[in-house]
Amino acid sequence: MSVGAKHIATFIMGAAAGIALAKYMNMSDEEKEKFIAGLKEKANKFKGEAENAWDKASDYFEELKTKGADALKDHAANAESVLKDLFGNQKGAAGASTK
Hey, how many other C-beta atoms are within 10 angstroms of the C-beta on 32? Predict the structure, then answer.
């Protein structure tokens, strides 16, 4: 079994968690309260950013859907004439060659 980047990252994350736990255990009650309050503040900030990103993504995909539909409508009218220009009248050509 080879040691890959995932294994190294897992080891580093585990070591960091162990160090954080040891540091937390040696804190006074006041320090623990400040630490937890800071974590809650950061978590709420991250949650707000994630919700904002979700809203932006939703708006972006709605706009993309609308613009895509408009583009299809604009170019679909030309599609039939483009295909006729490319392939010509295949029914007539196929029928003439088989006779």
Answer: 12
Is the residue at 38 inside a domain? yes
Model pLDDT for residues 59-72, shown as the tens digit of each residue: 888 888 888 777 77
User: Domain limits at 39?
Assistant: 28-98
Conformation bin of residue 87: beta by default, left when phi > 0, alpha when psi is -120 to 50: alpha
pTM of this structure: 0.41
The total domain count for the chain is 1
Six-digit token string for 61: 């995909």
Give a yes or no: residue 84 inside a domain. Answer: yes
How is residue 26 annotated by DSSP?
T
Q: What is the pLDDT of residues 77-98, one digit of tens each?
A: 777 777 777 777 666 555 444 4
d(CA 99, CA 90): 15
